[in-house]
Amino acid sequence: MVRILILDDDKFYLEKAKKLTEDYFTKKGIPCRVDTYQSAEWVIAGLKEEFYDLYILDVEMEGKNGIEVAKEIRRLYPEPVIIFITNYVDYAVEAYEVNTYRYIPKEVMDKKLVAAYETIIPSILEKEEQYYIIEKKGEVEKIAYSDIFYIKKEGKYVVFVHKRGESKVRKPLTTVLQELTSKEFVLIDKGYAANIRHIMKMKSRELYMRDGIILAVGETRFGSVKKAILDFWT
Questions:
Q1: Quick one: which of 137, 104, 145, 125 has its CA closest to 6?
Q2: Reported confidence tier of residue 61, pLDDT bands at 50, 70, 90
Q3: Which end of the chain is more exposed for a tag (fewer CB within 10 A), N or C?
Q4: CB–CB of 69/40 below 8 Å?
């Protein structure tokens, strides 16, 4: 499912963008969820709680504008697609500084938004959410890759530290990493692997994670971890 957030303080254009989006995805037979907001402050407040694949933002609004929202999105997440739909062309240069995919005037929204979807949706679908399944006696648990902050070895168990708490599986860490089959997980030290999408900063041999934890990078792994982060972010 493709998750989309639309922000516009003008209800007419907000509903128009939502309808164009839902009509496009319905026609293509692609599941989607569209959430709409009229307040930039509400969007910023919820960024850490909810991740979207695509953000469609108005630029000029009362209070914080769409550029400020985009900067906060980029501070937290390098990978989502950002599209600006606006009546103001003056912000175009500043918009592209936050790695904007498209800057669309509202007067041509019908044509240009659909055209943007045609080119970007295939790459978004390639990044479709993946899940790790933990099977125990009488219990099955599904954990989204995007929810996992990091993984650590505890005795004979591997512990997943994620947005809902912690989950254990009795397997070697090497086996778990092979099963995850994703470049977003990187082995940072003996017994620890981090999800790159939740690394906020790397300073010296310390990783500052989104959940507030600081993880140490092994001395011999510093170069490979730094490269993996840069490759994922760029």
A1: 104
A2: confident
A3: C
A4: yes
